[in-house]
Amino acid sequence: MERLKQLKTVSIHGKAYVMVDQRLIHCAENFDYNVKIKEVKYFADIKTWLTHVAIEIKWSKDQEFYNVYEGTAQETIGQGMINKTSALENCYTSAVGKALASAGIGIITGKDSSSTASGDEMQKAKTSSEEIDKNFNLILQHLDDYRSKYTFIEFEEKLYKRNVGFSADQMKQLSELWNAPKTAA
Question: What is the pTM of this model?
């Protein structure tokens, strides 16, 4: 079946992935299709876009009706390089990629693949994880300075407002270190 054809892949964090542009090119070359934006919302309090799209595809020229596949994505302004300037566009592209994946376009199977997450989502997850670890290590390096300026509750509120994304284990570790006796200089 043409929609399940193996498409060009890239490696993202060691996993094979078909980029959204390749999925769209394949769809445009082989099928009659339409992309419809079903919903776009902006959540100002968390600076996040949500996009929901539907892709209508006729798999053959003699097919009377379109099959419909949907995709939803969300992107937060400022999270990752692309979202600093193009969060809405990235959100739309991710939603389209998910809809195409639900239609079976660009699906790759196997443990070394990622078929439905967008390439950007995979990069963002890795970058976000690295950034969280970097921020956590910086806080640990300057722990005594922070402890002299804030209570743990105040500092925790600052972290929450900045949406740093520390895990529960990291927050527990930070709390334990914060409340431990201060080291002598």
Answer: 0.61
